UniProtKB/TrEMBL annotation:
Coiled coil: none annotated. It comes from the Bacteria. Residues 46-266 form the Aminoglycoside phosphotransferase domain. This is Phosphotransferase family protein. The lineage of its organism: Bacteria, Pseudomonadati, Pseudomonadota, Alphaproteobacteria, Hyphomicrobiales.
Length: 352
């Protein structure tokens, strides 16, 4: 258990900014003075330990702290690292009382620090990296999971047309678009030939389920992309909106349920830990939204394929020298196992 608790500590918190992620702090301070309400320096910059995509910084001032997310430097895949979209969605959701950080300002002028970035509030709380929540009391574990699931349900109940996000994503079948997108991203970053991926690229587009609802989709909704209250078992901010768009809420919902088939919860004694089963988690979400639970095999295959695309992208960034975390190499090694697991679920869904 001590090792598990240390995992939360290892990925949480800040560190000195890595040399490759250094920015012009004086230029940033001047820009914030002009564009961030209430800002007053001097500015001290640290880098968050977690994350492998958009580099994220803690900006400390005598009065308060902020968070900055920016695009990585260097060659990037098309449409990747769209910090302007992150800023737009948290701005819209924050106005509805949804738990997100406060969006202060967006900068698309690369001359300030070398890339686009945005500034948001620093939400003080807890981030849990280990889904078994080893340091929490049994009662709190279930409450944390319930808060996580209900928060996703609340997101999916917002009508994009009513909160200024009607054009936040393309119309048409979300899964078809996503399969095409991640196939393209995979090809752009491809470093090896994986037979299972080739079969998935052929099979998934032919078997896409019908879409019946459109909502805001987070795209990477998981426990460690949330901040919980410092002492209470409730979510106060959902983070990392880089992959958010308009789409089928079943994508987020089934991605959440995958937690129970992935390392972490797959072999956990849920009853002893007082954690909900996959069926109980689904019931919480479905009771809140009125959604029906689909046959999960196709969706699990799709979600794993999508992870393959993401991990291959990380592998590509290692090759290009723009990966944002030392953990990137470890993540890239997961590409082949994820591809095999995705094809296993595809076969359960009828693939030959």
């Amino acid at each position: 258990m001590a090792d598990d608790v240390r995992q939360d500590e290892e990925f949480s918190g800040t560190k000195v900014v890595e040399e490759r992620h250094r920015i012009d702090e004086i230029s940033l301070g001047h820009w914030m003075r002009e564009h961030v309400e209430g800002y007053d320096g001097p500015l001290a910059v640290l880098q968050f330990k977690g994350g492998q995509s958009n580099p994220t910084y803690r900006l400390n001032t005598p009065e308060r702290s902020y968070v900055m997310r920016r695009k990585p430097f260097g060659k990037l895949l098309p449409s990747a690292h769209a910090v302007d979209r992150e800023f737009r969605v948290i701005s819209a959701l924050g106005k509805q009382g949804f738990p997100v950080a406060r969006a202060y300002a967006l900068c698309t002028d690369d001359s300030v620090i070398g890339s686009s970035f945005y500034i948001m509030s620093m939400e003080e709380g807890r981030v849990f990296w280990n889904p078994t929540l080893p340091a929490q009391a049994a009662e709190a574990r279930r409450q944390i999971f319930t808060s996580k699931i209900e928060t996703l349900a609340k997101l999916h109940m917002h009508d994009p047309n009513k909160i200024g996000l009607a054009d936040f994503g393309k119309r048409g079948n979300y899964f078809a678009r996503q399969i095409a997108r991640w196939t393209k991203q995979y090809r752009a970053s491809q470093t090896q030939y994986i037979p299972e991926v080739e079969k998935l690229i052929e099979w998934l587009p032919k078997t896409v389920p019908e879409q019946t609802r459109v909502s805001i989709v987070h795209g990477d909704y998981r426990l460690d992309n949330m901040i919980f209250h410092p002492t209470e078992p409730r979510a106060i901010a959902v983070l990392d909106w880089e992959l958010s768009t308009l789409g089928d809420p079943l994508a987020d919902f089934t991605y959440l349920l995958m937690q129970w088939i992935m390392p972490g919860l797959k072999a956990a004694d849920l009853k002893a830990l007082n954690l909900p089963t996959m069926e109980e988690a689904a019931e919480i979400y479905c009771d809140y939204t009125g959604a029906a639970l689909p046959d999960l095999n196709w969706y699990f295959s799709y979600n794993l394929f999508r992870l393959v695309g993401i991990m291959q992208g990380i592998a590509g960034r290692i090759r290009e020298g723009t990966a944002a975390s030392a953990k990137a190499i470890e993540s890239a090694k997961r590409t082949v196992p994820l591809a095999k697991a995705s094809w296993d679920y595809a076969k359960k869904a009828g693939a030959m």
